[in-house]
Design goal:
Elements (H helix, E strand, L loop, with lengths): L18 E3 L9 E3 L3 E4 L2 E4 L11 E3 L11 E6 L3 E4 L3 E3 L12 E4 L1 E2 L8 E6 L8 E2 L3 E6 L3 E4 L3 E3 L12 E4 L1 E3 L7 E4 L2 H4 L2 E3 L3 E6 L10 E3 L2
Antiparallel strand pairs: 1-2, 3-4, 5-6, 6-8, 7-9, 10-12, 11-13, 13-15, 14-16, 17-19, 18-20, 20-21
Protein name: Sushi domain-containing protein
Pfam family, one: Sushi
Keywords: Disulfide bond, Glycoprotein, Repeat, Sushi
């Protein structure tokens, strides 16, 4: 009668809209999930990476991070911290995040050294091999006979550098006392040197027939 015996021939679609076939298909076994999806029985589920949390002392750039394939996650650190690891990570096809987990570590300033003939006192106190954390303060002072040049107080900034100027202690020197008519200064250095060292004493001796007015001894202080 011109009819082909048997069931009606027809094409049945794959069970999930995210299925594809890689060639001529003869059955459901030829339905595979497209890129970015993974099979779960006869259905396709979107590939997901583990949910990320922002690093301690840090935050996500966009507030939250998705975890589906090709989702990007950017991390930053709070003021006073620096990021170690990957600042941007992508959710990959193998459900793993690219890069390395980010960490926020406190920024530190390099150790300061006490100036020659000076004293350095810092807070908080740290070990001999450690650098200083942000907001640490260091105060400088000089031994007697020296005066301070630079910043007496320096603070570790969030940029991981010290504010202020480098500090040194320079020796105190005094101008030699002015010449006095009918008198000389002793010792001889008080008459020759233009600048005298700290602690130098100069004694005025008047010539015969003259009396001294004013202090007999002058000291460089």
């Amino acid at each position: 009668n011109g009819e082909v015996p048997g069931d009606v021939t027809r094409c049945t679609p794959c069970p999930d809209v995210n299925h594809i076939t890689l060639g001529p298909a003869v059955g459901l076994q030829d339905c595979v999930c497209k890129r970015g999806f993974v099979a779960n029985g006869t259905l396709c589920e979107m590939v997901k990476c583990p949910v990320l949390k922002p690093p301690k002392h840090g935050f996500f750039v966009r507030g939250t991070c998705g975890n589906v394939v090709n989702a990007g996650c950017g991390s930053r650190c709070k003021v006073g911290y620096t990021l170690i690891g990957s600042s941007v990570r992508l959710c990959q096809q193998d459900s793993k995040w690219s890069g390395k987990p980010p960490k926020c570590v406190v920024k530190r300033c390099p150790r300061l050294q006490p100036p020659h003939n000076g004293i350095l006192a810092c807070s908080p106190k740290i070990g001999n091999e450690e650098d200083f954390p942000v907001d640490a303060e260091c105060r400088f002072s000089c031994h007697p006979g020296s005066y301070l040049v630079g910043s007496p107080l320096r603070t570790c900034l969030p940029l991981a550098r010290w504010d202020g100027l480098p500090t040194t202690c320079k020796p105190i020197k005094c101008m030699a006392p002015p010449k006095v008519s009918n008198g000389v200064w002793h010792p001889e250095e008080c008459m020759i040197n233009r600048k005298l060292p700290f602690g130098q004493k100069c004694q005025l001796v008047c010539n015969n027939g003259f009396d001294r007015e004013g202090p007999e001894v002058r000291e460089c202080v």
